[in-house]
Amino acid sequence: MITEMDFFAVLRNENPKAFVQKTYKRGELLVPFGASTSDIYFIISGACRIYLSTTEEEQTIRFGYKDSFITAMDSFISDKPTIYQIQALRETTVDVITRLDLENFIGNNLDRLKAYNNILKQFVAQQMEREQDLLTLSPVERYHRVLARSPQVFQHIPLKYIASYLRMTPETLSRIRKS
Questions:
Q1: What would the 3-class secondary structure string for 75-138 be?
Q2: Domain that holds residue 98
Q3: What predicted TM-score, i.e. pTM, was given to this entire model?
């Protein structure tokens, strides 16, 4: 199965002018709440998070790091303003491509369309697995699942954001990590 990195490598090699490279400072928003975006960000270096901000707290729903893509999927698909924000967690360099350039690249090429669909299927499967974990697993079990599934998260993402992603306080995460 083709990976995100392979797909974007082919895309970048065949259509380098479609990408714009941008660097974001730590804490800077790639996509603010309420923006409409048709851009996909392929992370060259650094790390990002997608989060939802309520009056009480911020809920991290996804991370992105080197060799992965990130976007405000709700806006990317619908052309409507996003309810999420995408934030650089440290200095982050991305290659940005618009949906139109991506669609032009895919065009009528069946292999490219299959590869793109596989990436989308992987994304949906990951989101469904995460939702199931949140609904059915204890905090300890959620921690161990993320550790087994994505150990790199603990190398690239500050613990307070991992705690938010796992739907627990930083103190609870700290206790679980020590036990």
A1: HHHHCCCCCCEEEECCCEEEEEEEHHHHHHHHCCCHHHHHHHHHHHHHHHHHHHHHHHHHHHCC
A2: 4-108
A3: 0.89
